[in-house]
Description:
Number of strands: 11
Largest sheet: 5 strands, antiparallel
Strand order of the largest sheet: 3-4-5-6-7
Helix content: 25-40%
Mean pLDDT: 85
Amino acid sequence: MRRRSTAGFTLLEMVVALAIFALIGIASYLLISTFLNTREHVAARQDQMRRMEIAISLLERDFRFATGRGVRDQHGDREAPLLAGNENETGELVRMTTTRPLPGSSGQQQLQRVAWRLEGDRLVRVTWPVLDRAQDTKEFSQVILEGMRLAEFHFLRLDAGNRLRSSGDWQDASLPDGVELVLETRSGLRLERLLETPGGGLG
């Protein structure tokens, strides 16, 4: 007499099935987690790139509309139109006289003294309400970029032999022929740009 086969799973088959489902669940979780982390990383990098482009646009405008108008500092001493390597200002990268549109006017420009500083990991743009400052003149600062590792300016000049010279300092009464800008974030994002100056032949 033949025995009837009973339907169902043995204990071993149940354990194997549960193990397979657990592995599938772990793999799915890791896949989704990796996807979300990658998306967040890409979004953060894109946001940092967008902010760097904004900073470069501001710098391009400041240098493109720079002028040869010198100023007097808060002590009454003469200051070059464009000044870099200022030992009296910790973290200051460059200071210059530039122009900006006059509010409420059509096409009129107003002179403005501007400085760029690296304060810790923050790139800061500083302005003053007047050109020739007094000791109590208030400055206005705006954080343009955060998470910075490096911000460098190399000031370029063509000599009499048409050879290109580069320097990290600038205190001449005239403007450089161009400026090489290097920005690098702590995350490794790096941008290099050649900035034009009025009358410069490098743009």
